[in-house]
Write a structure and sequence with these properties.
The protein is an alpha+beta fold. It is built from five helices and 13 strands. The strands form five sheets. A three-stranded antiparallel sheet has the order 1-10-9, with helices on one face. A three-stranded antiparallel sheet has the order 5-6-7. Strands 11-13-12 form a three-stranded antiparallel sheet, sandwiched between helices.
Length: about 280
């Protein structure tokens, strides 16, 4: 028992010393010291290469293109969060900052674990500390990634004066935008153009909202939909799900049981002079 108390006391001393030893990121410009960054010491993460493309529309609405992009693409920002670690509470960094504040005391680990200690900021921008002691007696540790900056994945905006949509993103984002412009900017009676990424369906009987609800209920993985019009549905799906999506649209875009029957053709009457007997 006395050994356990000494071990816990030693852990407390190490925990309180951590902010002074590893909690302060090295200052810039110090010889031999790595520059702080949101990754391993001295390593700067590679920034995504984003291209810019301007699409000028003749008939379509630029805002409709942007709204459809938000439906068919992932969230515009990528943001990292510190992992949840049992037995201790890490110092949580605000996205965009250099790192979170030092963590407080962690909660007791169940069952019968000792109290864990939150850590200070580990350079660069991480949260470091001891978690609670699990039943086996080993000390749980964690290394967080607080203070990670949010990075733009793609962006899109409209300029009303030139009737333009400006997209900044990867090659795939640019191609999705090009497909949407090709569909939404075509003449009203023109057939659907050949598309690169987006699958577009013109519907005869079902509505786009109706089919969107069906796909949402089935929880397809990585399948995103946009209702471009009441009878026009756009889908972005991986190759393994694209066939199922097309088959489902074909099966459901049929007349319903409640639809009125088509009117029967009127019977042709007798031609003039037909059926009269000569005197």
């Amino acid at each position: 028992m006395r050994f356990c108390f000494r071990a816990v006391a030693g852990l407390m001393a190490v925990a309180w010393a951590l902010p002074a030893v590893v909690g302060q990121p090295p200052g810039p410009g110090v010889p031999g010291q790595p520059t702080p960054g949101p990754g391993p010491a001295g390593v700067q993460p590679a920034k995504p290469q984003l291209a810019v493309k301007v699409f000028r529309l003749e008939r379509g609405d630029p805002e409709a293109v942007i709204q459809s992009l938000h439906s068919l693409l992932e969230a515009p920002n990528a943001e990292a969060f510190p992992p949840a670690v049992p037995g201790g509470i890490p110092g949580v960094g605000v996205p965009g900052g250099p790192g979170g504040p030092p963590g407080g005391f962690g909660g007791a680990a169940a069952p019968g674990g000792a109290i864990g200690f939150g850590g200070g900021n580990a350079p660069p921008g991480g949260a470091f500390g001891f978690g609670g002691v699990p039943p086996g007696g080993a000390i749980g540790c964690f290394l967080g990634d607080g203070g990670v900056n949010a990075a733009p994945v793609w962006r899109a905006t409209a300029q009303a004066r030139t009737q333009s949509v400006i997209v900044r993103g990867s090659d795939r984002h640019i191609r999705v935008a090009a497909d949407l412009v090709a569909v939404l900017d075509r003449p009203a009676v023109a057939p659907l153009p050949k598309l690169q990424v987006v699958k577009a369906f013109t519907l005869k009987h079902a509505t786009a909202e109706e089919l969107a609800e069906v796909f949402a209920a089935l929880s397809f993985d990585d399948v995103k939909l946009a209702t471009l019009d009441a009878r026009l549905l756009a889908v972005v799906a991986p190759d393994d799900a694209a066939g199922s999506v097309a088959e489902l649209v074909k099966e459901l875009d049929v007349p319903g049981r409640g639809d009125p029957d088509p009117k029967p053709r009127p019977k042709k009457g007798p031609l003039p002079g037909e059926g009269k007997h000569p005197r």
